[in-house]
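Hi there,

I know you've been waiting on this one. I reran it after we fixed the sequence typo, so this is the corrected version. Both the input and the resulting structure follow.
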Amino acid sequence: MVASKRTFWPVEQVGFLDNLPLDIFLHTVENVDFHIHAAFEIILVISGSMRLYTEPGEERVLSAGDVAIVHGWQPHATQALGDRNMVLVLQFDPAATRHDPKFASRRFELDASGPAGAALRGLLSRMLVETRMKRAGWQMSLEALLLDVRCHLLRFVPHRIDTGATEIATAFEERKLSAHMQNAAAFIRRNSMKAINLDDVAAANGLSAGYLARLFRNETGGSFTSFLTQVRLLRALELLSGPRTVKMASVALDCGFPNIKSFNLAFRRTFNCVPSEWRKMYQVAQPSAYGRTDAPATMATLLEWAKPAMPRL
């Protein structure tokens, strides 16, 4: 398998646990071609080995105990090596907290077998143990551990801000906003196909335009216009996955873009291709690239790794 030269890739559908901004599971790696998804992903190899390919042109061999990161919307592929392997996968919404609005734009450079990776190994192991044991408060524990993971990445893993990173608003992100912002987001979602502006949203929610503009900057890290564009693009992805008989101009207008030119421009800035290319190559979003599995034999290893992060196990 070689690094992909494409500028757009199949989209994997990622789902999260009920009322949580994450999913964590065991998986046996197979050969999966390049694809993308919105979730931030951390891979922990429990046994065996695998090869991870990421754009642009990076390739790493991961063995038992190694940890690797796949950023949201980063093209990546996997290849099985040798005997049967087992990996733990954590996927989470990179926008699921207001404490670091730039998290989705951060690009971490993790040493797969270094001390930072070892600490993440313990946290991820504890998270999976929590989902298996389901003791009282296990969901709260998962949310707390996810914050620990993100905090550890920020403090101990070298990273940079990618100003060109793709950021799309998610439903879970909206549930983390203040009441005023949740109402504003709901109004935008209901009316995004119309020619609405900041004044319209503010008036509908009994707020001043200036105050609402500040809320957008403080709680989403962006402007009202960027949030509205994100909502429209999400709607566009739904329509582009439907029948190909729908004309592109109709998709643009149905999503609230004034013309096909502005639609193409916004789409390219976010997805690095125009809508017609997206629909032509990948009309239907791909199902999850991961086949879930449950291997009780791996729990002994995970319990051992989890002990430093879980003293009262």
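Quick highlight: The first strand starts at residue 22 and ends at 27.

Best,
R. S.
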